[in-house]
Amino acid sequence: MFIYQVNLYVLDLSYNRIKILGKGVFHGLQQLKSLNLIGNNVLHKLEAGAFAQLYSLTSLSLLNTKIEILGADTFNGMDYLQNLTISTGLLNVVEDGTFKSLVNLRRLDLRKQNIQDFSGDIFLGLSNLKGLYTDSFILCCLKPESVTECLPEAGEFSSCDDLMRREELRVFMWILGLMALLGNFCVILYRLIFDREGFRRGYGLFVTNLGISDFLMGIYMIIIAGADIMFRGRYIWNDNWWRNSPYCQFAGALATMSSEASALFLCAITLDRYLIIKYPFGQCRMNRLTTIIFSCCIWLFSIIVAMVPILPGTGFTGELYSRTGICLALPLTRERTPGWQFSAGIFIFFNFLTFALICLGQLLMYRAIVKSSSIVQNKGRRSRDVQVAKNLSLIVLTDFICWFPVCCLGLMTLSGTVINSEVYAWTAVFILPVNSALNPFLYTVTSFIGNKKIKKAAIQEAKATYSTENASSVMIRKLKSLWDNPDLYFGSAALGDQVITLKALLSSSELSASDILAIVEVVVRGLVAVHSQQLYFGNITEEDILIVLNNKKILKTQLSAKLVLPDQESSKQPDDVYGVGKLLGRLLRRYATTRRA
Fold first, then answer.
1. 181, 436 in Cβ contact below 8 A?
2. pTM, full prediction
3. Count of structural domains, the chain
4. Potential cystine with 306: which of 225, 257, 279, 486 (Cβ 3.0-4.6 Å)?
């Protein structure tokens, strides 16, 4: 065809219907410098020797064809070729020795091809290659030593040999993984076996569920650390299989479920604590049923969020978890895989909202504690306030360390800022799971130790008082300071028509809302006064409240004082505040029943 075109330098055959290039088809074009075959989208076969005798050719473009196989002798005779483009097509197989005759090739572009079948000698003979451009980092791991630029670059975590390319990342993955696994396992056992009473309350149930969610994060980290050991020294040959395997998808879903459940349970714990502090008499509190429903909703939401990226029909095709070797869906790179909007919405905006709610709740709790402590000023109370303040500060700090950097980096990425791969790696391996490793210590260990210290301080304070005075003199001194308190009554009351107990009053008449408020206000004032002297009531019932009547109307209310000193040897003291709460609950239920009737 071209045997008489010996002086042809440029040949453009782009966008034709060429199907096969046979052997020797370009004979006679010894002076040809550039050959363009772009857009021949039915070209599917290159026979061996198709480019023979193209001794002067320096540039060849096979862009957008349907060639699936490059044979060993495809490019024989192209000794001076410098630029070869075989991008955008269906290329699947590259045999050994395909490029061995291209000794002067400088640039090779294999992007947008699905090359799956090749060996470690794929680039044999390319001793002068400088630029290699592909879509798979595995090909960069096989590049000749002469290559100075190879795309894509190494991932944020993996290298040619290892899933975790930095030794520090491996160490922290194991440390935080084992801390999360063992620490939360101990929390779950402690709550279920040694603290069954606390487990029945909302706080204990939420902390147990928090331990379960953080335990899942520990499992995820151990899975990734185990995969790193399994593929050590040969990871790149297993990279594609691992990232698209059900094991990686499972690990990614586990990490997402854990992080979202953990964040929501922290919000629930904050809400529960706030209600307890704000309404100490139980006017507004989560009961066990509410807590269980709340927990089930959190788990359901977290499971749905974790499963959406891998469910068929969502359009995500599992790429959110398979984007990196550690199987996380964090939106901290500029790569826009299918479903990146979902990932950004959950990990950036939703988690930032939960972080803000937790911080707000902790602030409101601390304000409520400070306000209540101003009523009773004593050493024991100040000690408890300091301990609570420390715990709240630690919780806010760890939440800040965990979520704030992730949210900020995510927003920077969405705005187009390039995040350094090292920053991304440390964020994913160290910052994100740190909460799961620390939560057992924040919510169980510190609580356990803090309660022990407070109880010990109270006992020591009582012992110090007894060292200077005996029990009788201490009680007399404290009673004298309370003797003139108008809300307290000492001694045996002369009951009659005008002075009766609250129990007797309830049996003969009904109380209005204002009556209940007035009675409870007196009881609380009396309780505060007694506690200020480090004394306690016994169990407060309707028989301990005296009512003075005038024409069947309540004139005065007093609390019959049955006071005791704290036990020196026991850390368990009479829970009179709880007794008042129960009393108020009974009065309100009776009032509500009367109103309905």
1. no
2. 0.69
3. 3
4. 257
Rg (CA), the chain: 38
Q: From CA 373, how far away is CA 453, in angstroms rounded?
A: 19
Q: Do 379 and 233 belong to one domain?
A: yes
Round to whole Å and give the CA distance between 249 and 246.
Answer: 5
CB 69 within 8 Å of CB 93? yes
Task: Look at residue 478 and tell me whether its pLDDT is greater than 80.
Answer: no
Q: Are residues 331 and 417 in the same domain?
A: yes
Looking at the structure, do residues 366 and 285 belong to the same domain, yes or no?
Answer: yes
What is the CA 128 to chain-centroid distance, rounded?
Answer: 48
What domain range includes position 130? 1-153
Beta-ladder partners of 107: 83, 131
CA distances from 154 to 2, 119, 429 (A): 45, 20, 17
12 falls within a domain:
yes
- Name the token pair of 209: 């569920």
Q: Which of 75, 112, 69 is nearest to 94 (CA)?
A: 69
Q: Are residues 92 and 186 in the same domain?
A: no
| Token digits of residue 411 | 């927003």
Residues comprising the chain, all counted:
597
| CATH at residue 397 | 1.20.1070.10
What's the mean pLDDT in 384-390? 55
- Which pLDDT tens digit goes with each residue over 528-576? 888 877 777 767 788 888 888 877 788 788 877 666 555 543 444 456 7
For 563, the enclosing helix (H) or strand (E) is strand 563-564
The 3-state DSSP class for residue 339 equals coil
- Mean pLDDT score of the chain: 80
Q: How far is CA 372 from the centre of its chain?
A: 34
